[in-house]
Amino acid sequence: MSKHPELDSLRAVGFDMAQLTSGDLLSYSPINGAVLGRVATTSAAHYERAVAATAGAFLQWKAVPAPRRGELVRQFGALVRTHKPALAHLIVLEVGKIPSEAAGEVQEVIDICDFAVGLSRQLHGLTIASERVRHHMLERWHPLGPVAIITAFNFPMAVWSWNAALALICGNPVIWKPSEKTPLTALALAAILESVVRDFSDAPTGLSTLLIGERSVGEWLSRDPRIALVSATGSTRMGRDVAAHVATRFGRTLLELGGNNAMIVAPSAREDLAVRAITFAAAGTAGQRCTTLRRLYVHESRYSVLLERLRAAFASLPVGNPLEKDVLIGPLIDQGAYDAMQSALASARKAGGVVHGGERVNVPGNESGFYVRPALVELQAAIAVSQAETFAPILYVFSYRTIEDAIAANNAVTQGLSSSLMTQDLSEAELFLSAEGSDCGIANINIGPSGAEIGGAFGGEKETGGGRESGSDAWKAYMRRQTQTVNYSAVLPLAQGVKFDVG
Ligand code: NAD
Hints:
This protein is 36% helix and 19% strand.
């Protein structure tokens, strides 16, 4: 009998957790610390073979018409739909998300596949007016080359899919280095893609590769000149390393790094909306989203009432085993995350902050899991820990007097991912969205900073890395641009009127 019957459907694509008993990398469930599986990691020899196959696959795949490449992604998305409940269950087990958030993550995979299928007929270039008689100029987009995708633990499926679906329709093979904390979700999703690739007549061997391992595998990919683009999602520390290695060889990076996202609650904000938006954005996913709300600026006229409501909301949040009904806050990923949270709270207390919540929660039967009550920390002014990203549910709360001050505080961190303003005042909203407003990649009005849709380009500025993934024209990162000039005359006029008559 399988220990996790919810995952049985995945056997059809070759994923069976019960058989993962002998690898060197252990996958733990944050729910109770249980070992879910043992997975073999990538050796240097296997790495060499895999990247060589990927380079070969590129030569074939780039010649396949883009809409046909889209058909492969369509078939993959259809299979993900079929296996959505099993995939979501695996995310719950391996990351500790609550089921609706886990299902939402799988839905993102499906959504980006749909988006990519449409896009596979819309990789549009430009026609450009030429100054020369009987010449025309074009800008065309061509496949780039093998794309390495390094992912973080907290979105173990969605982030890979944002990259992979676009990279594939753009004509590139993909190599995935998932977080060492989430090898099973990666194995399951990769198995689905591999099953489609196997039966797809135009798909070469090596089109999709999974390399399980620690950060060293990510470092190999960063240094490897055969990899045209390294798309890396994770901490700013990781992005700094990857950026330096890839730059040395003039490769391309797409970086999606840490955030330190803020919300401003203005005098005219709708209070109920604000309380819901703040609570979901700060405490949802146990504070482990790159877009999690970490700093809150409340207008001084609303501060005390809003703070009381937030304290009550945070204190009543159901924390527990995400497999149990009505739980909204699951566990932190591991002890390291718990220790980082407690250390940040201790620093805040030492700096005069007033801390509400933040303590460990005992969940009977799951004593090895790291469950916490989301914390609110009242601060008079910014301190070192409020300027850093601690990947846990801590919300630093400040009061402000003018919208200009609040916007300046929003921008006064090294990260630049997401931001939001709760207001009914049109002038304030427009200011926040203007060039003088938020300096982040994402700016929202009357919603929190988290929970983006796939249709927009996703990413952030400054130490968040500057990358854009997912919707809009993010596909251009996975292609190379070529400017073409065609002369259909019988003469050879030179640009800018240059004369160079020979013969
Ligand atoms: P992490 O940086 O510890 O690891 C992320 C990935 O990078 C893992 O696969 C890891 O093995 C690999 N890695 C680590 N060091 C590396 C190196 N020197 N070279 C190459 N690869 C290396 O991050 P994490 O703890 O898994 O995830 C949390 C972090 O990710 C947070 O900072 C969060 O904000 C960020 N994140 C950002 C986004 C975004 O879109 N901006 C999305 C999700 C998570």
